[in-house]
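Homework help board

Subject: predicted structure for assignment chain

Our instructor gave us this sequence and asked us to write out the predicted structure in token form, then describe one feature. I got the tokens but I'm not sure how to describe them. Can anyone check?
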Amino acid sequence: MRRRFELALNWSRPALTVGDALILMALATLLYVGVRLAVRTPTEIAGPTVSLSPWALPWYALLSTGRMAAAYLLSLLFTLAYGYAAARNRTAEKILSPLLDVLQSVPILSFLPVVLLGLTAILPQGFAVELSSIILIVTSQAWNMAFSFYQSLITIPVEMREASSIFRLNSWLRFKTMELPFAAPALIWNSMMSWAGGWFFLMAAETFTVGNRDLRLPGLGSYLQAAANAGDLRSILLGIGVLVLIITLMDQFVWRSILAWADKFKVEMVGSDDAPESWFYDMLSRSWLLEKFNQRIRHPLTERVDASMVRAFGPTVTPVERAPEERTSRTVIVAGLVALAVLIYGGIRAATLLASVPGEQWVRIGEGALATLLRVTFSLVIAAAWTIPVGVAIGTNRKLAAVLQPIVQIVASVPATALFPVMLMVLINMAGGLNIAAIILMLMGTQWYVLFNVIAGASAIPQDLNYTTALLQVKGWERWRTLILPALFPYLITGMITAGGGAWNASIVAEYVRFGGTTHATMGIGALISEATASGNYALLLAATLTLILAVISINRLFWRRLYQVAEDKYRME
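My token output:
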């Protein structure tokens, strides 16, 4: 097993490529089209009345959970298709890998007003608002799952790939029997994090207003927002209590059962003495009805699907390495030229809009980006300082995990935006109060990405390696240096990338706050985006949003992406 901390990085590689420029042009074009559509929406839209009655909470909880479930299913489908394509095809990787960097850096809260108003202009209002809400939640769930799945596929041990070739597995059977099981533990932990992240953005997804346009949706998020605006502490506590109940039920009936089931997919020579347990999973495994369902329905259906997939993908032998580049067809070339022409036209129109931004606003944008960068860096350092030791403790101690796992899920899932007004009341009169509050909100919204990935990495350490280090009496820092930190490295990079993108996104709600009829703002790129949204200054919104995206992409290219390459080359388990 190659496990050495040698960061042989290729610093000569450019941070931004031509592909990145095309992707940015595409985003600018989409934003410009959305702006043009947003202008056509009615100037006044009446939203629904959100009741603070406790009897409304069950219905609101059902609506919000349904949106979360729909968003998660879309995120999972996106993850499997996107991560597989990026990991298995070198040509696709050159497009999809940088695109994923860009997409996870897009501050959806700045795109939301344009997307929502644009959809409202061309779709029925109710459907457009529901669709926009689900899209926003998807963007808070999909990226860390896709990064995790991609990271797992590129770090599959060579001997497992060779075994799949020896057994002559085609693409479908290789995916079903090797790739998906190998990626399952990390994907499950990131799915848990995705649900927590979805709750964080739920209030923004259900409580959107632009001027006189009230586009709220009934749900837990809008209930908590209405309670916070009214200063109704009783309703806030009731809403959070219902949210905690939902999270607890999800932990007991869903996540704990899936973790117990997925423990068999760990790559290890010796079984764990303290495997994860779930009373609900044990009850299902002994169920007579479930046994009959598996015999009569699931197994025959699975065999038919496998047979169909084998026929569809063919019996060809799977190569050990990723598929080589293929020659580009004429159809792809023509489609690419048409898309390029559209991008050029949209880029010119977006550039015209950017040219209308005054010089002093560009100075504000630069200063705001630097201020937000400092807050993001500080929040990531704090997150790593506590999540690495705590995550390792949870991931390596099943008894401790049984106690702390539901607690962590509950704390991570409570929307920090619901508690932020209360926190702001305490900190606003202190020196640097809003700066401190902004860092705390960034930390509350992003530290869980690091923690859940560290837990996944620690729990994936093979038990035989733990026995070996114990036999050799490797303890303390030496054990961390030779076993734990190398094993965590790929997972930690995944967590830090998604946490960094989330922190930049969270700056939009952390640096510009409306509470009690008063607006509180501090210097930052997120504050500029929120200010532009509130005032309808779409030129400033476009300029600030593109600047934020460029900042995140540059950081990913100059730092995180190169560490990703190190994880693939030096820290795979083999």
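Reply (TA_rk): Your tokens look well-formed. For the description, you could write something like this. The longest helix spans residues 359-396. That's the kind of observation they're looking for.
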